[in-house]
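agent> fetching stored inputs for the flavin-adenine dinucleotide docking request
agent> found them:
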Amino acid sequence: MKVAIIGGGYSGVILSILLKKQNNDIDVYIFEKENKLMKKIYATGNGRCNLGNFNDNLKFFNSIEAYRIYKNCDINKQIHILKELNIATRNIQGYVYPFSLSAKNYIENLEFWVKKLNIKVYLNHKLKSYNQNVLKKYNLIFENYLNIDDFDFLIFTSGGKSTPNLGSDGNLFNILKEHFYTISNLQPGLCPIKTLESTKELKNERIKCKACLYDNSSNLIYSEDGEVIFKEDGLSGICIFNIESIIKNKNIQSPKIILKVFDEENEKMIKNYYTKYKNIEVLHGFFDSRMFNYIIKYYKNNFYQFEFSYAESYSFSDSQVTIGGVSFLNINKDTLESKIEKNVYFAGEILDINGLCGGYNLMLCFSSSYIVCNNILKHL
Ligand SMILES: Cc1cc2nc3c(=O)[nH]c(=O)nc-3n(C[C@H](O)[C@H](O)[C@H](O)COP(=O)(O)OP(=O)(O)OC[C@H]3O[C@@H](n4cnc5c(N)ncnc54)[C@H](O)[C@@H]3O)c2cc1C
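agent> prediction call returned; pasting tokens
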């Protein structure tokens, strides 16, 4: 049996290892357009690779479909599978990392298995098109004019459009459209946002706060404690990345982001002071002069919290994940097999699945690959 995996990112590599570990007779090929496997993984978790999270509530995923996919191979099972590969992990307050806390080391471990299991890796191979021959096998045509034929299974793990410099530029969606796949609206997720209000004066300033997302009817949609980093034209930081993804996933109209800087005790203290002395000098005790001047300028009458209106998101180049992907209209949600073409499967970020920051996206790559692996093995 000959299996072609298109895309040598995390999903493709995990899938190849799972397949070969289960049945070493399968001929597994990975085709990767870059000159290295898993280029994106080096950048994950600030170089430490946040593999997963024990806090695995539905609210951290974009949809029930994504959550169900995750539940097929949850974090405990993923850790167990990694253990069988002699890859140790570490739990830091619920966040799961490779034991070495090194993405590079994790990649080296996976690459060791790719080699050991004789997975055939073709780097610098960008798929251009594919077709099915009379024997119902898949023929692949690459940009370097090389053709490789007769695959029994074709699996797309070619990611989304985020960080194209690390490989995933969305080129494969065009090929899939030619095969009549519906691609749901592709948007950058987990990225900074631009605000209607000026933030230029605060560029590079950081504040610890509760970041709250409200819709246009002032309903609180989400809140998270974290650090917000001011950019020339907006806001950044993990809590802002999460808010950005929620705005896109839930299609929130005219979103407002309110940064609550003070805890109850300090807010009360400031309010008492302000009521008594009618000036906001008291804020000098909380902020440096740059922040103080900004607050005086923009928040004279309401300086307990800072309100921003979402203007737009940063681009795919600045985003950690792609919202949207190959639609479940064309894919069986349980097996991840195509409804359009037999023996074609999808795993990872190419699908219309995503999660918030904290390991949820790599867990989705792993669990979707696990589902595809099990369903391919059923054909044996
Ligand atoms: C900076 C950054 C930090 C992140 N940190 C974390 C984190 O700590 N935890 C977490 O859970 N998630 C994190 N993510 C998200 C996570 O890395 C991705 O969701 C995940 O790596 C997606 O894996 P994938 O294999 O599905 O797709 P990708 O990693 O995008 O891999 C797809 C591969 O397919 C190849 N390809 C594309 N088109 C073709 C073609 N035509 N022919 C051949 N090959 C092709 C690409 O070159 C690429 O190598 C982070 C993302 C970024 C950008």
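agent> quick read of the result: Residues 6-12, 31-34, 39-40, 43-45, 49-50, 125-127, 157-159, 162-163, 167-168, 171-172, 320-321, 348-349, 359-362, 365 surround flavin-adenine dinucleotide (CB under 6 Å).
agent> awaiting further instructions
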